[in-house]
Design a protein that fits this description.
Blueprint lengths: L1 H21 L4 H13 L3 H12 L5 H18 L7 H11 L3 H18 L2 H12 L7 E3 L2 E6 L1 H15 L2 H21 L2 H10 L10
Antiparallel strand pairs: 1-2
Helix pairs in contact: 1-2, 2-3, 2-4, 3-4, 4-5, 5-6, 6-7, 6-8, 7-8
Length: 209
């Protein structure tokens, strides 16, 4: 049961913390302690320990493990910690270097930018997303049960801009889109045109590309 699992994690945490007293420099043990802290609800302390650990020299396996655990903890926390969202996103930016993690980060960044009405930011995020190749469906808004394909995300994101922003913001957006369209056509570069179409497929300007 969940209660039994929690008690087991609690006991393991106490045992591991006791072992740390004699092995304070054991990085693998530090990762284990942080993981157990997360399992028992000590999220802030676990994250702080992982951040501290990542500042020290580590072998590749231990570093990747610590980064993965911290990254997943922050992804889980992001939707609920609104006051610290900017800081969490900045940290996820640094931790999300591999393509699937980068795509998840960009989805979260876009949600935040839409909430703040930051069209310039949304546009950059859309282009950043279009520039990477993701093969598997990705969770939307931190919800692991709500998945979206990478091909569908960018058009849906720009479509949300048209629905959510007011007339003045949309007017500015259209000017930006027109500028990008002219630049794409004048470049004569197929990849540039394809990127424009992938980003603005639901906008009227796409028919002129």
């Amino acid at each position: 049961s969940g209660i039994t699992a929690f008690r087991c994690a609690d006991v393991l945490l106490e045992e591991s913390r006791a072992a740390q007293k004699t092995r304070p420099d054991d990085a693998t043990l530090c990762v284990k302690v942080a993981t157990l802290r997360l399992a028992t609800g000590e999220v802030d302390q676990a994250n702080d320990e992982l951040r501290s650990l990542l500042k020290s020299p580590l072998n590749q396996e231990t570093r990747q493990s610590a980064e993965r655990i911290l990254r997943e903890s922050l992804f889980h926390r992001l939707p609920f910690d609104i006051p610290n969202r900017t800081r969490i996103l900045a940290e996820l930016d640094r931790l999300s270097t591999k393509t699937p993690d980068r795509a998840r980060y960009l989805i979260c960044r876009a949600d935040d930018q839409l909430e703040r009405g930051d069209f310039t930011g949304v546009l950059k995020t859309a282009h950043d997303f279009a520039s990477i190749r993701v093969n598997e469906p990705l969770p939307m808004g931190g919800n692991p049960l709500h998945l979206v394909s990478s091909e569908a995300f960018v058009p849906a994101l720009i479509g949300r801009v048209r629905r959510q922003f007011g007339p003045e913001q949309l007017s500015e957006a259209r000017l930006q889109v027109e500028t990008e369209l002219e630049d794409a056509i004048q470049s004569g570069d197929r990849r540039t045109l394809e990127t424009f179409l992938s980003v603005y497929s639901e906008w009227p300007e796409a028919d002129r590309a």
